[in-house]
Amino acid sequence: MMLNVNELTVRFGSFTAVQGVSLQVPTGSVCGLVGESGSGKSTLARAVAGLTPYQGTVSGVERGRVQMVFQDPYSSLNPRMSIGDAIAEGTRVPRAQRQAEVARLLDLVSLPATYASKYPRELSGGQRQRVAIARALAARPEVLIADEITSALDVSVQGAVLNLIRDLRTELGLTMLFISHNLAVVRYVCDTVAVMRHGEMVEFGPVEYVIATPRHEYTRSLLDAVPRLTHA
What we know:
It is a single chain. This protein is of the alpha/beta class. The chain has a single domain, classed as P-loop containing nucleotide triphosphate hydrolases (Rossmann fold, 3-Layer(aba) Sandwich). 34% of the residues lie in helices and 25% in strands. The strands form 2 sheets. A 6-stranded mixed beta sheet has the order 5-6-7-3-8-9, with helices on both faces. Helix 3 (98-108) packs across helix 4. The two termini are 35 Å apart.
């Protein structure tokens, strides 16, 4: 089913963090949410995931079938819990099958099954982010939300994680919201892009079209900030 977000608004007291955003994400496609810090993109995503109260409607997906991968993989993993236990915690299989399911999920994110016995402190940042992705996939989500998942990683491993996301999208047919401040990254991963500014969506469309013919001056400023990603 298509993920439908209609007139979604998030308020924190008198402050409006997201104002009347509507968008559609077809099944199996990836929509990028792009904008500078404070633009409302992460708040919008958290609302879609059911982590933040909102007004408006989110339809096309069951509330429990949305999973989120956060920016900092270390803080999102329990340091006292083994990798295997962290992944198994979210699985939807009988207890007797969990070890095999954990091994399958680790393989899915290109980590060996032996990592199930390790702890977060024993892994690199890129490996921890792969574990966080595996844990999110354990719940067999209908929608996966990736919130700046490469921004806390070394440049040398960012590309590998982005390639993993592309591979998983192809292999699993994932529907995704992909949050980033970088239009070059969004172009590499996404089919469509929603440009957020001050809590409002100022532009939306196929990612290649938005980059080639940006209509809003804010979109043009984001493009200008990426040296090798210029628009016509």
